[in-house]
Amino acid sequence: MHYILKCVCESKFLHVHVDRFLSELQQRTHPDAFGCFQKLVDVIEYVAKNMRAYTSHCKQPLQSLLDVGKGLNILIEEKDLTMRVRRLLQLTDKENIQMKTERIYYKREKAIPVPDDEEPPEKYSEMTIFPVTDELFDSVEPFLRANKTKGAYRDLEHYLDIHSRLMKEDYLSPIRTGLKDFKIAQQNNESVKEHDLRFYYNVQIAKISFDSDEGITHLIHFDCSPFIEIEWEYSKRLMFGSLLVFSKDNFESTIFATVANRDVEKLKRG
């Protein structure tokens, strides 16, 4: 049952089909509608209480249940059912707050700076702009010295070394956190919570070409079925210059690239 509900939650059930069903339910009489209404509350209650990854997804259908229930006088006459729906709404609000708190915690989690007088393992000019795979995981401690707020830098190289490493860590840290969440979700058989990262599946390289301005480019295909409702014209997904991380072995090895061209019509087709 848990697996079936997981598939249901990852479909359009909670945010599309429930609303449509409730709209049709308003045309029915009270006795006929009550049974359907109660069963729907049972399903959403199970999801909200037993499937934490989807608890926050229940807020919209629960609010719709309240609105329709009042219109049909179901919630006015059935006080116990009203209390159940309201308690579930409180649960979803609590989960949303906790998710935001966790997100803030992840964003604030920073590596402890090394002493300013400690010499770096290599020159900043020899560092790769793209990270190596090991840098994506906590097993590698980045060499970071704090930005100086008092006193002067020793020289230009000292200044550039500190800031180039801090800038690299600024984009690496959310990737590291996102991949950590991704692997934990996999282990727990849960849906991945996308914060700073967006995940695309069944990615394939369809074409390789060379352009004098853009250099070597690859035309990429991905499974667009989960993104049918995305309005690509306004979405910030896959913007020009966005960093991409490709992997075929669950991020044991990686290839990095950036978005060189963004065609909205092609994005809609994957």
Automatic annotation (TrEMBL):
Pfam families per the UniProt record, alphabetical: ZNFX1
Residue ranges constituting the ZNFX1 domain according to the UniProt record: 193-270
Record-linked InterPro entries: ZNFX1
Protein name as catalogued: ZNFX1 domain-containing protein
Gene: ORF28823
